[in-house]
Amino acid sequence: GPWALCHHPQAVAGRFVLAGHLHPALRVAGRSESVRLSCFWFGARTGVLPAFGAFTGMHAVRAQPGERLFVVAGDTVAPLPQPTLAA
Predict the structure, then answer these.
(1) Region of residue 66 (left: phi > 0; alpha: psi -120 to 50; beta: else)
(2) What b/e sequence results for 30-61 when a residue is b if at least 16 CB atoms lie within 10 Å of its CB, and e otherwise?
(3) Segments of the chain with pLDDT less than 50
(4) Predicted structure pTM score
(5) Structural contact between residues 38 and 25, judged by C-beta atoms closer than 8 angstroms
(6) What confidence score (pLDDT) does residue 52 get?
(7) Quick count: other Cβ atoms within 10 Å of Cβ 18?
(8) Does residue 47 contact residue 78 with C-beta atoms inside 8 Å?
(9) Is residue 41 a contact partner of residue 63, using CB atoms and an 8 Å limit?
(10) Which residues contact 40 (CB under 8 A, 6 or more apart)?
């Protein structure tokens, strides 16, 4: 099939890679506090899956143009707007 399942995100010729290891997260800041939320991080050839355990670290990510983040909050998975190139 079109998939390669890998522990670390890496290029695999002719395959879309699904990986873990980094455990992506997004920091959401309010007026007086912030929270880190797990997220899915997808690019053109690689998707990095979140982790939800108490003992997993979270790697703060910021999507680049062409990438997508889907934040996880409770039982909800919500897409974030796609980043665009600065003019």
Answers:
(1) left
(2) eeeeeeebbbbbbeeebbbbbbeeeeeebeeb
(3) none
(4) 0.86
(5) yes
(6) 82
(7) 15
(8) no
(9) yes
(10) 24, 47, 48, 49, 50, 68, 69, 70, 72, 77
